[in-house]
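Chain A, query sequence.
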Amino acid sequence: MKRKVAMSNLSQFKVELEQEEDGRWIGEVPSLPGVMAYGTTRSQALASVQALALHVLADRLEHGEALPDSLLTVSFIAA
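Chain A, predicted structure.
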């Protein structure tokens, strides 16, 4: 018998993107301290910071550290 699992908990992480004076882009996830990444384009910075955030969350899971609000699903929203 298959059991349906409700995925009602959704954690969204705000990504702040800003272009530096030298033209590089930096992305940051303020709710995950230290999660910042550069890219030569806005989309590259966004992809890099999302990947880093997922690595941080995976590391926390692996080491039994607390995750934000019963994390089941993750999405990123560029601001």
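The chain has one domain: 16-78. Residues 16-78 form a domain with the Double Stranded RNA Binding Domain fold (CATH 3.30.160.250).
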